[in-house]
Structure to design on (319 residues):
């Protein structure tokens, strides 16, 4: 390798190590700045102004969103041909997703899924493939949805993150192209090709199943946005809310803050500051967190306790 090549390789190596930390500092700075300017009495008043009917509809959309997300694991079920029933697969995925949202990917996305699935008799290697296909479905949906938003309705980012529409649209093109490349690769593989990374292998689905992944992955993000949009009562256009949610999701991943606590709120307030007062935006985000994070957690905790209790029974005593 030439000297220029070695220097470029070293520069890229240090960029990959430093960039996530720099972005995390930027996001957390934004969180601290927003927290210091919040008028909490006004937030409480805005929360009280949310109608019960609107909250009930948002809860219904959240239920649909969780069902769609849990369906991601059915892709892995189909490809690995494991014998766990559809209802148990959906239940396991839903519980794991709740823990993922509230406690982080390592706890919910990996550890919880591994524990629940292996308790049902699946091997760890099979569980790893189910998790991998679920992750691909989720982020495939993110790629094409976020790419479409950047192409047709670039969000107005706060000062620290501001970029021209041309830059954002270029990023959108790249994201949509990545999603399309995956679909094409799956289409030509006819379910007979595997992706290899170091010692890991992942079977590619066929073209039809890849389209199902793209549709369900995208639907999950669109439904999540629908919850917040309903709580805003149509006062902010849906694409604007969608852009804020997609940006908040990435910020949460970068900072590794469990449940994106404070990050979700800060990003929404910063991005939507020109549309509604900060107190009203924050009230909606807190209601969204209660509906999409905390209420499912209140249901998932006893459900998980029940699965543990069932798993400890003698085999003949289980239902």
């Amino acid at each position: 390798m030439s000297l220029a090549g070695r220097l470029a390789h070293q520069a890229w190596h240090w960029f990959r190590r430093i960039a996530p930390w720099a972005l995390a500092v930027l996001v957390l700075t934004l969180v601290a700045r927003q927290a210091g300017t919040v008028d909490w009495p006004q937030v409480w008043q805005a929360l009280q102004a949310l109608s019960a009917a609107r909250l009930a509809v948002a809860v219904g959309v959240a239920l649909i969103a969780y069902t769609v997300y849990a369906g991601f694991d059915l892709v892995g079920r189909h490809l690995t041909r494991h014998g766990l029933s559809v209802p148990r697969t959906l239940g396991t995925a839903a519980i794991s997703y709740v823990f993922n949202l509230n406690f982080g990917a390592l706890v919910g996305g990996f550890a919880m899924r591994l524990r629940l699935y292996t308790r049902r008799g699946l091997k760890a290697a099979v569980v790893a493939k189910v998790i991998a296909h679920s992750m691909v479905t989720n982020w495939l949906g993110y790629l094409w949805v976020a790419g479409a938003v950047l192409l047709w309705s670039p969000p107005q980012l706060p000062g620290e993150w501001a970029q021209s529409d041309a830059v954002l649209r270029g990023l959108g093109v790249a994201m949509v192209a990545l999603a399309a490349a995956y679909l094409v690769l799956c289409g030509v593989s006819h379910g007979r090709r595997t992706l290899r990374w170091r010692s890991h292998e992942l079977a590619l689905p066929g073209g039809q199943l890849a389209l199902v992944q793209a549709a369900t992955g995208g639907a999950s993000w669109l439904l999540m946005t629908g919850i917040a949009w309903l709580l805003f009562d149509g006062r902010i256009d849906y694409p604007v809310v969608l852009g804020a949610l997609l940006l908040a999701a990435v910020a949460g991943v970068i900072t590794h803050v469990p449940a994106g606590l404070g990050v979700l709120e800060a990003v929404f307030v910063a991005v939507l500051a020109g549309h509604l007062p900060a107190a009203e935006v924050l009230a909606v985000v807190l209601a969204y967190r209660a509906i999409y994070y905390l209420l499912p957690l209140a249901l998932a905790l006893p459900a998980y306790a029940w699965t543990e209790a069932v798993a400890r029974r003698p085999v003949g005593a289980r239902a």
